[in-house]
Amino acid sequence: MAKSLPGIAAIFEDEYKVVEAARKSRDLGMTKFDAISPYPIHGMEEACGIKRSVIPYITFGAALVGLGVGLFITWYTSVVDWPINVGGKPLFSLPAFIPIMFELTVLFAALSSVAALFYYTGMPRINPPVIDPDLTSHKFAIFVPENETGYDVQKLESFYKGLGATEVKKVAEY
Amino acid sequence: MMKRNQLILGDKNLKDITDDICAPVETVPGKGWVALFLSAKGLLIFYLFVLGMVMANGMGLLGVNHPNAWGTMIVTFVFWIGIGHAGTLISAILFLFRQKWRTSVARTAEAMTVFAVMTAGLFPLLHTGRPWLDFWLFPYPNQRGPLWVNFRSPLLWDVFAVSTYATVSIVFWYIGLVPDFATIADRAKNKIRKTVYGALSLGWRGTAKNWSHYEMLYLILAGLSTPLVLSVHTIVSFDFAVAGLPGWHTTIFPPYFVAGAIFSGFAMVVTLMTFVRIGFPQFKDYITIDHMEVMNKIIMTTGLMVGYAYASEFFIAWYSGNPYERYVFMNRAGLPGTSGDYAWSYWMMVTCNVLIPQIFWMKWARRSIPMMFIVSIFVNIGMWFERFVITITSLHNDFLPSNWGNYAWSIWDAGVLIGSFGMFLTLFLLYLRLFPAISIAEIKPVLPVGRDDHKGGH
Hints:
heterodimer, A: four-stranded antiparallel β-sheet, B: 458 residues, mainly alpha
């Protein structure tokens, strides 16, 4: 999770312009910038050079844990701690435990995936910095933090203006 | 190539969408909403009174007796749980199939799911007769000896299935709402609204990295919800199918129950959406007649599946040669030589679920709001009767004629059934005013579908 840093933000009003700007920023060798949009944009991950999310691995791990917990709890209670002989049927009756194991697999996987999202996005967070309130409605932005390679306010401002930014402004922290 | 119809009518831009969808949250409710809300709330208070009476006096207040140990509460539980399934089908399964039309109705259908599951969840808890001891349903170390729940019982599978389903659907729904809460908070002029929705949005910022994780999570939750929703009604059907009772003990139950659940759920979505379109006219551009038509096609398809299941049960009863099984089904339909006490409910179910939806073969009926509203109400009624037929006709005449008896329907049964709508509608009406009823962040990317003016990229 990145720390908040000051930097500059370029505001765009069209989706295709911000994707183009992200792609050009990356061509320039920048790696720490981020794009902000009101909805997920098709092709933006590739334009920004974002790697595939690691959440699926966490989901898979948590699913296995859930499956194991389901198996353990049914086995321990029915075989070890409280064995009941029902007409000589086996104590470890696996088919009857499958529904429990399945439900716990899904429960663990789903809740852990959400926890992973919270971890990677820094949520929940009180009072996140807002660059422009319209960025969750109909505007788009590229934010460049000051520790970016080749950070130069003047140069970046004219660079983004040239790519169609309607406004380039300094941001105290984001 | 066939040209697709526009998913969203009225040539809107991004800002119009935000404005339209946020409007119900940001304006003072009109008289219509207040009238509906007060009626629903009145019904909810009546419901609380009925449930209080049932809890204080015991289950004997309802019509359950010997041999009909399961009655209105279980029937209505299955009814509401079934309704919930359409929401997950729309939000998860249609998402995996990349059905873009789902975006307009997904949020409200998911809300319906959450509220239907909440309404349903109360019934089995109260039906235990001593709801203050319901924590015994969960396995936890205790001092009653090493005394554990019976993991081989379908009723306990149901506890796990329904509580997992409720948890995962609430989480899925909430994750979908997070970016929209951020939108409302950013737009808010009013300090309280800004604080409340800001807190609800969990500090969402919408950076490309965040969206990347978010979309992955959404896909995963959709992928997890899909087998989950199928498992829930399968396990509900195990409550019946694992018992040895003729009329219950059949292998067709899981697919039959799931198809019926989707059928009834879509009918409820259509019922609610016709009201949403009347209450919020600006939503007509998002929830178009095309959307309603697709849902009506699903209603007809699943209605045929349910009809096939009814026929198949009869065929198997005859083909099995089991006299008890044969009797139960002949008795259901009221054929000669049986008591036929509940034949009226069976034929009501067949009429509502199989015959009436056939009108959707005609395109005008699929696209007519009054017609689809009427059909959806009949389907809701028919699906309640389906569960009534399954539960009561199987229980009331089992193996021994000396053990036969009819369900003693009382006014409290009616109170429980009608009152449950008060709980559901109160929650639903509050939702329409407090949460964005269409997903703002999901609808924007499908805006270009069917439009000619593609700009720039893509």
